[in-house]
């Protein structure tokens, strides 16, 4: 379970987030949505201890992310941020193998190779595993980073816009894998996502942020209403029901 | 789930040359080392070594130390280069383009000025400490610049190095040490003898330490976020890496002098062939560096025999050409 309380983040006196408090129950997929600059990535980075909050704190499984040893945290939570080095000449397989680093400190066992093979297979990267990252397309590279995080095999997985650069097929491929990890393995997955249709299709819960505050929080049914979404993005949006699912549609 | 066949697993990450290629490189480098032992003003050959005590003495006092010094200095500079390039995520950074070497030079000069009669170790320590501080300052500056232009980073380093070099030159003029500065700038191995080269063993030890830390440094090279996600203490990894570079550069600067470009060309050549995974590339970096420096030194000894061209001059000529080639290639690739 993830908890955060009174979290704020300021840059040069300008507050970009908070104060926000909340909790994300264990299990399932939670989508963080909201307009640009709402503080989604900031909140995710603070929970994932990639960024220090100006005030407040967060905990994962009862471990305070600011004080717990980063190595111990790495066995319980995995976080993928948005910016990656693009010109690294590391093979896809070696990158995914670094997902096992928190568990092995570099000495891979047979079981680790099984994790790596599975993550590569899940993301359809087995054929690309010996390619260098700088030889891949943006979407292939993005899948490799997601595979690394999945190979880390942690209870909590935080992903900041993992569908960037991905075509529909691979976006759905990743969301299906995340759904599977949540359903079969009971993983807690939090994902910053801009595609509302995909968020509505795969998430269990939605947290909507706006101007650094949590505007709405609840199940997909509760948050994905025409009124809330239109107000959140200050754009007219209609919600269709297709086979009992919510589908947000933009009105031209 | 799909279990990868054993064959595939064996080939895991297998890219670039096969293992025997590394053995071949090792044999080639060893060959150059042997050649280096038998080239020089004083005629030394195998039968002579067995029969003539004077030849044997020359061999042990001058030739063996010289060859070992070349190998260790090459390992120091090329390993420093590959570590710097990982940590800065920039292929143009190495001790001479980050100002590290110039700081080491300033440290050495200060040691000579402040404690003229102090032991060799003082110079070594001061050179290493200033190299460390200077490199940390450089890292702090480039993290603040956050430019997209990869060439900006070495330009900042070269500029910083030039400022530090100017301070050194000013001090040298003031205190009448310009001549020894000049000798230092044109590094060569002609003066290396027994009892003088031994600190360079530190470079070999540091290279082994870096091999042990290879996975951590590769992770740090993937960026702060990915390193932290993997449970690595990013700051500690950076500090260890920079300290290793400072130590290698400090020792090499004090014993040999200014060896430009080696840390630039070797890691770039190896990266093209082997990629950036340090555990895999480090042996290649060390051997390629040694081979190139041995070759440059042998050429320097042969072309104007019985005189010598300092190895730094030959390195500078080859290195600047390769630097330009890499820079232009990088520009084309975007």
UniProtKB/TrEMBL annotation, chain A:
Keywords per UniProt: ATP-binding, Cell membrane, Ion transport, Iron, Iron transport, Membrane, Nucleotide-binding, Transport
GO cellular component: plasma membrane
InterPro entries hit by this protein: AAA+_ATPase, ABC_transporter-like_ATP-bd, ABC_transporter-like_CS, P-loop_NTPase, Siderophore_ABC-ATPase
Membrane topology classification: Peripheral membrane protein
Pfam families tied to this protein: ABC_tran
SUPFAM superfamilies found in the cross-reference section: P-loop containing nucleoside triphosphate hydrolases
SMART domains in the record: AAA
Family annotation (CDD domains): ABC_Iron-Siderophores_B12_Hemin (cd03214)
Coiled-coil segments on the chain, per record: none
Residue span(s) of domain ABC transporter: 2-236
Main location: membrane
One BP annotation, GO: iron ion transport
Record-given protein name: Iron complex transport system ATP-binding protein
Species annotation: Agrococcus baldri
From TrEMBL, chain B:
Record's bilayer topology term: Multi-pass membrane protein
Primary localization: membrane
Protein name: Iron complex transport system permease protein
GO terms, molecular function: transmembrane transporter activity
Homology family: Belongs to the binding-protein-dependent transport system permease family. FecCD subfamily.
Family matches, as InterPro entries: ABC_BtuC-like, ABC_transptr_permease_BtuC
Keywords: Cell membrane, Membrane, Transmembrane, Transmembrane helix, Transport
UniProt organism field: Agrococcus baldri
Subcellular location field: Cell membrane
SUPFAM superfamilies in UniProt: ABC transporter involved in vitamin B12 uptake, BtuC (SSF81345)
Alphabetized PANTHER family for the sequence: FERRIC ENTEROBACTIN TRANSPORT SYSTEM PERMEASE PROTEIN, PETROBACTIN IMPORT SYSTEM PERMEASE PROTEIN YCLN
Transmembrane segments: 20-46, 67-88, 100-117, 124-145, 151-175, 196-214, 237-270, 282-303, 309-328
A family per Pfam: FecCD
Biological processes annotated in GO: siderophore-iron import into cell
KW Transmembrane helix (keyword) present: yes
